[in-house]
UniProtKB/TrEMBL annotation, chain A:
Domain (CMP/dCMP-type deaminase) ranges: 261-382
InterPro entries in the record: CMP_dCMP_dom (IPR002125), Cytidine_deaminase-like (IPR016193)
A GO term, aspect molecular function: metal ion binding
Protein family (similarity comment): Belongs to the cytidine and deoxycytidylate deaminase family. ADAT3 subfamily.
Cellular component, GO annotation: cytoplasm; nucleus
The UniProt record lists the keyword tRNA processing: yes
Gene Ontology biological-process entries: tRNA wobble adenosine to inosine editing
UniProt entry keywords in alphabetical sequence: tRNA processing
Protein name in UniProt: Probable inactive tRNA-specific adenosine deaminase-like protein 3 isoform X1
Automatic annotation (TrEMBL), chain B:
CDD domains associated with the record: nucleoside_deaminase
UniProt cross-references to SUPFAM superfamilies, sorted A to Z: Cytidine deaminase-like (SSF53927)
The protein, known as: tRNA-specific adenosine deaminase 2-like
Keywords: Hydrolase, Metal-binding, Zinc
Residues of the CMP/dCMP-type deaminase domain: 10-138
One Pfam family of this chain: dCMP_cyt_deam_1
Organism: Cucurbita maxima
Entries under PROSITE patterns matching the protein: CYT_DCMP_DEAMINASES_1 (PS00903), CYT_DCMP_DEAMINASES_2 (PS51747)
Length: 407, 191
């Protein structure tokens, strides 16, 4: 069965193994709660633990209720009772509390299962994800078929070369239209790309050897590949896939290729597809690039906050994406999209870190890839760029597992 | 972010001054003001500035512009991939702002010798701020000979000049732009 697997922002951890931090807590009289909470929120706010509830109520067997309260963060050294700030210490003294150290979960729960485990330690609040990027909660049948279709297109594109390369297809999902597509240009394949005489590359081997060694989260299990001769051959032939072997562009023996004018060590499929979509943009909307009508790109520099405040765009520019809620606003009146906002990209292999960051810059909405990239994969295998909070744009990432029948 | 700024040679400042000049060119074209120069054997062999707006390609950072000039030139001269790699291994890049994750990775792929940058890039920086790609990749078990190469990185060269350019870029804003969001928010319900 073909399937679409969501690759989450954070590496999956078992719900009962979530990271914790130590806090000072104390059992308090119910009548003191309001006063203490108000006071502690002022002098020892739980800044990075907003999901953690300050108060814990425990119903005891004899019908009584025990109320405990977090005083402040504690050091990670379990026995260090001296680390309490002076003003908290004063409260402890004046109310004659007996402080103890306990553990609370460090990160907000992302699933109900995680939340239930968290509450066993100390109660937390749980807000199910509110983002509404299509697909995170499941694709409908039509969208699923469309996703498979575009991924097949990417695979076909990759197969149309003699060398095995990565391929990228940028798609406008609302119109189900291909915006741009490209293969790796980092090696010269000018001779190879002319014809397909060499026959199609059989991705079925790759699927069998690699595809079966994935866990349910789409992460590759390293060092567990069968060492069959066929796989070895396949791995060798895959050395021309740019994102798999980004540092090996010098090893590829292409020098003999006649006037190979088109190799470029950085022109991986995704980068080339972005270039192609930008060229299309300039071609279709040639006049909208004039000075008075310019959207100011704010991707670089430490002053993005300033930039946001003074967002200097005209009607053409789209405001900063708010968790995908304003997808309707992608297109301006002129129909010109802002970069690749609202577009999806289909890649045969998981992009390397360079390509993955390029897709952030270009504001791609969703990334679909067929095969993980254990060497430099940036979307789950080695890095997890979709989970880097500091970035100003985030896309959703999916792995598309194609059944061998469709390859 | 490996080395301190103190004691940086006058050459370093001269080259960074040239990168700043590139950033000013970007500013004059209403681009985010970042500039770079690439130096081989003490000679500037390429310059680049941000062109993301002009090209509508958000990957056209100053580093990429300078890199592409060299790759094109060296290919025209008939250099092979290994000769090009050899060239890059002797090059130093000077850039006014910390290379982003994409550019830092690109510089690692090319095997550049050394990078000097101005201000840090807290949101996107790939040389210490968000990721540390300049240290090389140690997490690539199955690419024994293809390990991500690191490069020497020196931060804080003329950082205040680089920051000043960003400020003037965002403060000059766009004369045609509507009033900033935050102010509008006070007056318009559900902006």
């Amino acid at each position: 069965m073909s399937q679409i697997i969501y690759i989450p922002d954070k590496p999956p951890i078992p719900p009962d193994q979530q990271p914790t931090v130590n806090v000072f807590a104390a059992v308090v009289e119910p009548k003191l709660i309001n006063n203490l909470v108000r006071c502690l929120n002022r002098i020892a706010p739980l800044e990075n633990l907003r999901h953690v509830k300050r108060v814990q109520k425990k119903h005891l067997e004899d019908g009584k209720t025990l109320i405990a309260l977090i005083l402040c963060l504690a050091s990670e050294n379990d026995s260090d009772m001296d680390a309490m700030p002076q003003d908290v210490q004063e409260i402890v003294t004046s109310y004659q509390l007996s402080a103890f150290i306990t553990k609370v979960c460090k990160e907000a729960a992302t699933t109900k299962e995680e939340w239930e485990e968290q509450c066993k330690l100390w109660p937390t609040s749980y807000h199910p994800p509110t983002y509404n990027i299509d697909g995170i909660t499941g694709f409908n049948e039509e969208d699923t078929q469309s996703v498979f279709g575009f991924m097949r297109l990417a695979v076909e594109l990759a197969q149309s070369n003699k060398l095995i390369v990565n391929a990228a297809v940028i798609v406008d999902p609302s119109a189900k239209k291909v915006i741009a597509s490209a293969c790796d240009h980092h090696v010269s394949s000018e001779n190879a790309s002319m014809s397909n005489a060499g026959g199609k590359i059989d991705f079925r081997n790759w699927l069998e050897s690699v595809g079966s060694h994935l866990d349910s989260n789409g992460a590759t299990i390293h060092g567990n590949l069968p060492s069959s001769a066929s796989l070895k051959t396949l791995k060798q032939s895959c050395s021309t896939v740019s994102c798999l072997y980004p540092w090996q562009w010098t090893d590829q023996q292409l020098q003999h290729l006649s006037n190979s004018c088109c190799w470029h060590p950085l022109r991986h499929a995704a980068i080339a597809a972005i270039e192609s979509s930008a060229a299309r943009d300039r071609r279709l909307f040639p006049t909208s690039g004039t000075i008075g009508d310019k959207s100011v790109e704010t991707d670089i520099g430490p002053f993005c906050n300033l930039a946001k405040r003074q967002k200097t765009n005209l009607e053409n520019a789209k405001s900063e994406e708010k968790e995908g809620t304003d997808i309707e606003g992608i297109c301006s009146k002129s129909g010109r999209p802002y970069l690749c906002t609202g577009y999806d990209i289909y890649l045969v292999w998981e992009p390397c870190i360079m390509c993955a960051m390029a897709l952030v810059h270009q504001r791609v909405r969703r990334v679909f890839y067929a095969f993980p990239n254990p060497n430099d994969g940036a979307l789950g295998s080695v890095h997890r760029l979709q989970g880097e909070k500091s970035l100003n744009h985030h896309y959703a990432v999916f792995r598309v597992v194609l059944h061998e029948d469709v390859l | 972010m490996d080395s301190s700024v103190e004691g940086c040679s006058s050459d370093t400042l001269v080259f960074m001054e040239l990168a700043i000049r590139q950033a000013k060119l970007a500013l004059n074209s209403l681009e985010v003001p970042v500039g770079s120069v690439i130096v081989e054997d003490g000679v500037v062999i390429a310059t680049g500035r941000n062109r993301t707006n002009e090209t509508r390609n958000a990957t056209r950072h100053a580093e990429m512009e300078a890199i592409d000039i060299l790759i094109e030139a060296w290919q025209r001269d008939g250099l092979s991939t290994s000769e090009v790699a050899d060239k890059f291994s002797k090059c130093k890049l000077y850039v006014t702002c910390e290379p982003c994750i994409m550019c830092a990775s690109a510089l690692s792929i090319l095997g550049i010798k050394e990078v000097y940058y101005g201000c840090a890039n807290d949101k996107f920086g790939g040389c210490g701020s968000v990721l540390s790609l300049h240290l090389g990749s140690r997490e690539a078990p199955s690419s024994s000979n293809g390990q991500g190469r690191g490069f020497k990185c020196t931060a804080g060269i003329m950082a205040s000049e680089a920051v000043a350019l960003f400020r003037s870029f965002y403060e000059q804003g766009n004369p045609n732009a509507p009033k900033p969001h935050r102010l509008l928010g006070n007056h318009q319900a559900g902006q």
